[in-house]
Structure formats: C-alpha cells, structure tokens
Amino acid sequence: MRYVIAICIVFLLLGCASTESKLENSEIPDIGQYPPPKKGITKKRLAVIDFKDKTGGQRGEAGADQMTTLLFKTRRFRVIERTRLKDLLAEQNLAGIVEPDELIKKGKIKGVDLLCFGSITNFEIQHNDKSLSGGILSTLANVVANYYSPVPIPNLDFDYLKVQLDFHIGVDVRIVDTTTGEVLFADSSDVKRTETASSLGLVIAGISTRPDGRVEIDNENQGKLLRMALDRAVKKMLPDIDYSLEANMHK
To answer: From which domain of life does this come (predicted)?
Structure first.
C-alpha cells in the first residue's frame, strides 16, 4: 500500500514539474496543413529524390520521404511513390545517377513531369540551460518516494521536460521541369527558435550534450524538427505554385 502511495505521489509531482503541455500525438501544430487548390487544376506527376545532407549527417533519405508526404498533402501534384521512382530510373538506366544536373541532362524521365531536389544546409540543436537536472521538485519527489517505498527508488529527475533548446534547421528546395531542366519553384527555410523540449513534444530523457553544448536527440525527434523546416519551405513556395497552376488553366 505504501508503495502504491509513493507511485501516486511521484506522478502528482511529475504533473506539477512543468507548466508546459506536451503536444498531442507528439506533433507540432499546422505541419502539413495547406489551403485547398483551385478546382480544375491539372496535376503534374512529381517525384522527390534523396536530399543532400550538407551537415555531414544521414538525413537525406528521411528528408525526401517527408517532403514526398508534405507535397502530397498540398493536393496540387500527382506524387509518385519513391519506390516507384527508383523502378522508373532503373528501367531507363538512370538508377546510378544521383546528381540533379545529371538527371536533367538526360532529358525527360518517362512517367515524371517534375522532380523535387533538396538539401539540408543546417541542423544544429543546443541547450541554453546551466543545469539539465535537479531542482527542488526532483529532490522533493525523491525524498517522498523513498520515505513511502519499501525498496529504494532510483533518483528521479523531472526537469528534463523544461530543458530549453536553441535550434537552427535550414533546408533548400527546388522543383524542376524534367523536360526543359527549368527550375519552376525554389525556396529555402531557415528556422531559428528557442523552445522548451515539452513545447515541441520532445521528450528528452537522459539528455546528452557535447562540450560545445550541442544536444543529441533520437531520429524521431530529428525528423520532427526537419519536417517543420520543410513545411515552411513548402508554404513559401505555394503562392508561386498556385500562380503557375492557375496560369495553366487559362491556356
């Protein structure tokens, strides 16, 4: 019974440990939400190739997957599944070509009207807290929990939910006509913000930092931040995309 009471008290203190509310479904609001396209538009077939990660990371494939989903959600393109794109490139002996310029030089890729290229230009996350742990609530929770528990309870730390992060995520995106090689739409997104971990839905338990203050987070949380930057780039391109689609309707 005393152990049950201890657990209840711990959860009560945990609820009080942060005034920040975690986002439902661990998603940042408004990502992938775009105004509907005009009726009567002609949707071109679009495919996304692997992004270049210029930061030295391995996020190129994840960036392309996320961009594919976001462009599909705009409802302005007939988006080709990335596995199907690989098949098309293999069928046309283009499977080994990964550079955007090389793909365009080959002329039109059958079955694809538009290609989306992208690069990740920055991906840096740093903490700006002097301390990443401890605090009066953590101390109080440990004292109370161990008083009521029949067995020792490891040290508890609730402050990780309030870790402040400075992050800088940069991406460049281009959509190119596969017939002419013309860049039809291009934009960049450079997201710089300071947030608490919980306000972004990032649960950073056991946070680790390097001497330069950079924070290491898991792939899921990295993807969430990258998706935010890509979404901003899409939203910046939408006015030009809609202008082009509307112009084609009147030809």
So the answer is: Bacteria
Where do the structural domains in the chain lie, given as residue ranges? Answer: 45-248
Give tens-digit pLDDT for 202-250. Answer: 655 444 555 566 666 777 778 888 999 999 999 999 999 999 998 887 7
DSSP H or E stretch at residue 46 = strand 44-48
User: 45-248 domain in CATH 2.40.160?
Assistant: no
According to DSSP H, which parts of the chain are helical? 2-16, 60-73, 82-91, 100-105, 136-148, 219-249
16-62 tens-digit pLDDT? 443 333 333 345 678 999 999 999 999 999 999 889 999 998 999 99
**What pTM was estimated for this model as a whole?**
0.72
DSSP state of 109: P
